[in-house]
Fold these 3 entries.
Entry 1:
Amino acid sequence: MPEPELDNVKLRLEPFLSRLLKSASLEVRFQVLPGSGQIYVTGTPDIVVTFDGANSDLLLQRGGELLDALEHLCLEYLQLPSAERHRIAFDCQEYRALRLEELRLTAATAAESVERSGRPFALNPMNSRERRIIHLALQENPAVRTESEGIGPHRKVVIYPAQKNNRK
Amino acid sequence: MKELVEMIAKALVDIPEEVAVRAIEGEQSTVLELKVAPSDLGKVIGKQGRTARSIRTILGAAGMKLKRRFTLEILE
C-alpha cells in the first residue's frame, strides 16, 4: 500500500486545494504540515492541513461542515486507500482537538445517563471519524455498549445498557 | 462558480474530457448542471452522496460571500 508521504501529498494537494479555494472565492490560506503528535479526532495523523485567514470562521460553521467538505474532497482527490485516509487531517483554529474533548465529554455524560436509566440513548448524527471517537471512548466501559445506526448523513451512535448483550 | 464545479469534477473522475457544466442563471440563483460519463457518476456523487454534499457545501459558502444561491444538479 502506498503511504501518504508528506512531500508527495504536498505536491499533489497544494495546486488542487489552492485552485479550489480561489474558485470558491474563499479567503483562506493553508499549510500542509507533518502531524505534530497532537491528538485529533482521527488519532495522531501524519499530515495535517491547517487553515487560517479572513474566512477561516466560515470553515467551522455548523459543526465544521465546510472544513469536513474540503477534507472529504481532497481525500477523494488523493485516492488514498481507505486504511490510509485517517493519516491526513484538516484543521482550523485547533477545532479538531476541541471537538475531541467535546465528544469524549458527550460520550461520558450520555453513558452515565444510560447506566442510570437503563434506557438506550441516541447521540446526534456524526461522521465516521467522530463516531469512532465515541465508540473508542466507551469501549472500556462495562456498563454500556455502542452501535452505529442509520444511513449516510443521519448515521449516529446509539448507546445501550450492556446487559442487553447477555440476552442475545 | 461553473469553473469550481468543473475543476472539482475533473479532478475526481476517470474521464475528465466528458465533464460538462452548464450554468443556468436566474434572478437570485444559479443552477449548475453537471454532466459526467455514466461510469463516473459514482465518483461525483460519492458514498451516500457525500461527495455531492461536499460540493454543495462549498457552493453554499461561496454563495454566502457572493450573495447568490447556487444549486448543483447532477444529471444522470
Entry 2:
Amino acid sequence: MLDKIKLKITESKLQISIFCVLLLVFLAFTIANPRTFLSYNIYYAFMSIIPFAAILSIALTPIIILGDIDLSFPSVMGFCAWVFSAVFNQSGNIYLALVCSLATGLFIGFINSIFIVRIGIPSLIVTIGMQYLWRGLVMIACGGIGLSLVDTQGSVLYKVFVGRIGDVVPAQAVWAIVIAIIFAVILNWHRFGTHLLSVGDNVVSSRMMGVNVEKVRTIAFMQMGFFAAFAGILATLEVLYFWPSTGEGYLMKSLAAVFIGGTSVFGGTGTIFGTFIGSIIMGSLEAGIVSSGISGFWTKFIFGVVIVLSLTIYALMGKKISFRKKLFGFIKK
Amino acid sequence: MKNNAVISPTSEVTPPLVKMEDIHKSFGGVTALDGVDFEVGNNETVGLIGDNGAGKSTLIKILTGVARQDEGKIFWKGKELLKHNVEKSRNIGIETVYQDRALAEKQSIWKNLFLGREKVYGRTGFLKIAESKKDTIEMLKKMIGFTQKGLTADLSVSGLSGGEKQGIAIARALYFDAELIILDEPTNNLSLSETNKVINFCKGIKEHGKSSIFITHSIYHVYAVADKFIILDRGRVIGTIWKKDIMMDKLIENLEYVAKHGKLIGSYANV
C-alpha cells in the first residue's frame, strides 16, 4: 500500500511541481502587491480573460501529445470568429451563426488533417502555411473592417457563453473548467486517450497493435479546429466586437502553457491538469507583473525566465525519476 | 517443391497451421522473395534462420498482412487467406513480437498489454481500469512467470529490462489467444540472463499449446527452443531441417556452407 502511494507521488510529481510553480508565482505577486492580489477583482479579471487561451491550450494538448504541432489555430480562431460575426450580422440568428462557425472550425481542422495525415506533410510546415492562409482569408473577407456584435447582448447564448453568473463568475471560466474536465476524463479513462498517448509514444507499435493511427490524428486536428472556433466565438462575444486580428497573440502563450504544463514535445506524455495550470500561469503573469509595479517592459523577459526555468526543472526531474527507479530497483529479481 | 529439401516428411492428418506456397515479392526491381514455401505445424516452434537480406522480415510481413505478396498463396488451417491484412491476421490469431518496436515505453504495463484491444464498458469506450490492472498482474505472474517484487500494473514500461519487455509482449500475445506467435529477433542485444528469460518465455508458448516462429540469426538461441529450422537465403528457402535430425554443430556448419554456396551440404540437401 505504502509502495503504491509512493509510486503515485512519483508519477504525479510533475503535476505537483507545476502546481507549486503556480503557487510560487501567486505568492510572489501577493508579496509584491498585497492590495491587488488579496482582492477579488484581479481574480475576476483573470477569469474573464484566461479562459480563451486556456481552451486553446487544452485543445492543443492532444496534438502535442501526438508529437505533432498546430500553429494555425490563432488564424482559424480569427476566421471562425468572422464567420460567426458575419452570419449573425446577415441573418440575425445567433444559433445559425454558432453552428456555422463551429462547423467551419471542424472543417478547417479536417483540411489540416488531410495534408498532415493523408498526404503526410509534417504538421509544423502545413500549419505554418495554414496560419497565413486563414488569416489572409479573414482579411480578404472582412476587408480589414471589424463587425459589431452588440445586438447579441440580450440573447440567451450570450449569457450562457460570456454572461456573469450571479455577477461574480464569468461564464467562460466555467466553460474552460468543464472543457478541461471533459478532456482530462477522455485522456485518462477513455480508449481514445490511451490511443492518443500510445500513438504519440510509439506510432509503429500502435499501428501494429491495431490502433487506427490516422483516425486518432484526424480527430485530434479536427477538435483543435472546433475549439479554436469556440474560443473565437467566446472572445468576440466577450468584447461584443469582431476584430480582424482576433486570435493574434494567442499562439506563443497557448503553446507555452502546454509546455509549462509538462507535456513533452516528444509526444507520449502530457496532462490536461498541467496545461490548465500552465495557462493560468501564462495568463496571470502579465497582469501580475504590471500590478506588482515592475515596468511593463519586463513582461516578456519574465515570461521567458518562467518558461525556461520550468522546462529545465522538468527535464532534470525526468532524469531523477528514472535514476531513482534504477536506484531502488522496482523491478529486480 | 523446388529449392525446398524437406528431410522429415510431415505426417499430419490435420492441415498445418500455416502454409505459404510459392510466395513472390519484389520491391521496385529488387526481388525479396523468389518462390518461398513455408509451413508451420500445430504446436510447433519454427526457427526461421537467415542472414540479413535473406527475406525473413519480408516473409513475416506478408504473413502478418503488413505487405501483400505479388504471387503465391497463404493457407491458415487449410483455408486460403484472401485479401490478407493486419487486422485479419490478428483476428485469426497471428501475433508478432518485435523487439524494439513492440511497446509504447512511456505508457504503463497495463496500457501496453491492452493496447488496441482495451477492456471497455460496452460501446461507450470508457476503460475498465481496475479489471485491466488486475488481469495484467495475474497474467504476468501465471502465464509467463514474472517473479519481480513490487511489480505493479501502473509501472511504466521504460523501467523494465529488455527481457522483461519481451515477456510483456509475449504475455500480450498469449492473453489474446494467439495461435501463432512470431518473435522477430527476440534475443538481439540482450545480455545472457535476459536471453535466458526470453527463451523461457518461448518455451511457455509451446507449453500453452501454441505455435511460434522464432526469427533469428543466432542459432545458439533458437536451437534450444525450435522443433525445426527453416533456412532462408537470398529470397529462397534452401532447406527445412528437423532438430531431431541434426546437432547444433552440424547446423552451424551447414549455415556457413549456405552463406558461401547458397545451398545446404550435400547430404542434407538431397533427401
Entry 3:
Amino acid sequence: MTETGAAALVLENVHKSFGKTEVLRGIDLAVDEHQVVCLIGSSGSGKSTLLRCVNLLEPIDEGRILVAGRDITAAGVNVNEVRKGIGIVFQAFNLFPHMTVLSNVTLGPRKALDLPRAQAEARALELLSRFGLADRRGDYPDRLSGGQQQRVAILRALAMQPKLLLLDEVTSALDPELVSEVLQLIRELAEGGITMVVATHEMGFARDIADRVCFLDAGVILEEGPPDKIFSEPREPRTQQFLARIVAAGRL
Amino acid sequence: MSARGRGEGRRGVVIALVSTVVVFTAIGFAIVNAPGWPEVKAQFFDWSEFKATFPDVLDAFWLNVKLFCIAEVIILPLALLLAIVRSLPGPVFFPLRILAIAYTDFFRGVPTILVIVTLGFGAPALQLRGVPQSTTFWGIVSLVLVYTAYVSEVYRAGIESVHPSQNAAARSLGLNHLQSVWYVVVPQAVRRVIPPLLNDFIGLQKDTALVGILGAIEAFKQTQIDQAASFNFTSSVCAAVLFVAITIPLARFTDWLVARDRRRQFAGAPA
C-alpha cells in the first residue's frame, strides 16, 4: 500500500504513557524523503520515546505512524519486517559485547535479511573501510574508544540499508573530544541523502545538518521550522528559555 | 614495577612460603600426636586396606562417571530450553510458561533421594511393556529431572541479567524474539553463569552416589560392601579421593575458560 510520493515518515496524533506519566501528548510530524529532521528539547521532553515508538520498540496508545505511506501501528503488522527498514542508534551504543565488530555489523543482514555470510561480510567491510574502521573488524567492542563504538553502532544500523535512520542522542555518552568523529560520520550520511530523524543536544550540529528542527516540550512539538528560524528567532517563550539555557551552557 | 616493588614481591613470596610450612607442620604435628590418632588411622587411613579396596571402588566409580556424564549432556540443553520457554513473551505462550514454572517448582522442591527411590523402584514395578528395568536408566532419569530444574533457574538468572537494551538493539535490527534470545541474550547469559553451572555439575556428580540405593554398584555402594566385609572405613576415603580428583581439575579448567573469555572480550582484564 505504498503511496507514491508519500512522506517517508508521518506521525499523527501520537500518544504514549508510561503508567500515569504521559510522555507523548499528541505528536504530529511529517518527514520527507532525504530530509534530516532534528528533535531538540530538554531531557524528559519525549525525544527518545518518540524515536522508540517509530521503531516499534514501544507500542503507542493512540494515533498512528506511517512509514512510506504504510500504517506500521495497525493491527497485524509484522514488527520484524517494519524494523528491517528502520535503523535506530542508541545513546549507549548497545553493541553486542560478545561479538567482534564484524559480527556486530553482519548479525542483522545475516539473520534478519538471510544474507549469506560472505555477502554480509563484504557489505560490512565496505562500510567499515569507508569510515576508517576496517582494521578494527576483529576487535571486541570493549577494546574500542567510545567514538569508535558509536560509529560501529551506526554502521551496524546502516548495514541493514534502512530507508529511515533514527539517531537517539548518539553523542551524549561520549567524551567531548570523541564527539566530532561521530558527528562527521552523520554529516556524511546526511549528504548521502538518507532520511534521518535525529534527537540531539548538539545545537551547532543540528543547525548545520537539519532541514527542519522540532522543539519538543512536555510531549508535544511546541515549535518547528528551518534551523535558522528556530535558533535565531524562536517564537515560543519555552523555546527561547531552552535556547537561552543552552547558550548559557556554551553549547551553541 | 619499581625496584622497590620487585623487592617487596620477593619478600612476600618468602614470607608466604615460611608461614605456610610452619602452619602446616604444626597442624600435622597436632593431628599425629592427638590422643586416639592410631585408632583413627587404622579405621580410615589404613594403607593396605586402601590398596586392597581401591581397584574395586575405582571400577564402581566408572558407573558414577557414566551417570553424571550422560545426565549432564542431557541436562545442559534441556534446562536451557526450559529457561527460554519461560522467557517467551505474549499470552499465546502462557500455558507453556505455567508448565515450565510448575516443573521447576516441583523438582527443585522434592528431595533427590525421593525421586530416585520413587522412579527407580516404582517405575520398574509397574511391569509395563517397554518400560526399562535398568536401575542405571532410572537413576539417570531421576538426576536429569531434578538437576534440569536447578540448572534452568541458573540459566534464567543469567538471561535476566542481560540488560534489556541488548534485546532492544537486536530487535531493532529486525531479529525476531527467538533470534534475539539465541544470538544475543543467551551467549552473554551463559558466559555469566558458567561458575554456578559448574557448581550444579559438581552437585550432580556427588548425587550420583544416591543411585547406589537402587542397588547399582557405584562407588558409594562398593564402599558399603567393602565396609561390611572388613569393618574398616578406608574405602570411603578411596571414594572421596576419586570424587575430588574429578572436581578439582574441572574447577581449575572452568576458571581458565572464564579467564580466557574475559581476556578476549574486555580491555584491561588481567592477562
